[in-house]
Design a protein that fits this description.
By secondary structure, the chain is mainly alpha-helical. It is built from twelve helices and six strands. The two termini are 41 Å apart.
């Protein structure tokens, strides 16, 4: 659908009443699309957005490795009549659908990708107007958050950045890391050696929220009322134990 000048977001992406079930989305980016639909439906229902989804697999799909229905085979009964079955799968599984839990690490990865993406607007665009080192040198000349001053690690070596530069560098660096084929080579599994990045990403993102809450309270409250992004981030961190809560 072509986007025309002056169109509202609601016209381009109308609000959906009910997100489809996960197994109804046939896409190589199934989790990403499912998460996007949940947020479009209600960005404030953070528990539903963050909770690990479950897909259901029919008995025949489970028997066939999830690649399609089992093959029907015929057999002759004692009375000469022909009976069909699906490789005996329905009888083996009791004819009921089996729940299939999504991989937790992959789900957290998709959540972090989405949170970084959702920082762009209205959070970053609003902070770029308010977080000015010249107008507010005491709070924004450096990245101050919770009585700490943080150095920026996006320069090869740590150095001091003003707050808005730290925020932009953090979001850019996190995006590059999450899209790195070296650390995250697949969207279907996360290497064990890459799990350590979830904690460091969460810590750096938390500093942005803390800085906004302490020094730009009006921006924080307005953006949070629109997106519930901090509530979603906090729920994610608590649910999957990504970082110590005392830093939030």
């Amino acid at each position: 659908k072509r986007v025309r000048r002056g169109q509202k977001l609601e016209e381009i992406q109308p609000v959906i009443e009910q997100a489809p079930a996960l197994q109804q989305i046939d896409s190589p980016f199934q989790l990403q699309e499912y998460l996007a639909l949940l947020i479009r439906q209600d960005p404030h229902d953070v528990e539903r957005i963050v909770n690990l989804p479950q897909a259901t697999i029919s008995p025949t799909d489970a028997f066939a490795g999830g690649k399609g229905k089992g093959k029907e085979v015929g057999s002759m009964g004692g009375d000469g009549s022909e009976h069909s079955s699906t490789n005996g799968v329905d009888a083996f599984f009791g004819g009921e659908e089996e729940p299939h839990t999504v991989d937790t690490d992959v789900w957290v990865y998709e959540q972090l990708r989405r949170i970084v993406s959702d920082f762009t607007t209205p959070w970053l665009t609003s902070l770029q107007r308010e977080c000015d080192r010249k107008r507010k040198p005491s709070s924004c000349d450096a990245m101050n958050a919770d009585d700490w001053m943080y150095l920026c690690a996006s320069h090869g070596e740590e150095k001091q950045c003003c707050a808005i530069d730290y925020i932009i560098h953090t979001l850019d660096g996190t995006t590059a890391l999450l899209n790195s084929h070296r650390h995250f080579p697949s969207r279907t599994y996360i290497p064990t050696t890459s799990l350590r990045h979830f904690g460091s990403i969460s810590r750096r993102l938390s500093r942005i929220f803390v800085h906004a809450h302490e020094h730009h309270r009006d921006v924080f409250e307005a953006c949070e009322a629109e997106t519930s992004l901090y509530a979603r981030f906090l729920t994610l961190v608590q649910a999957y134990d990504l970082v110590a809560l005392d830093s939030l």
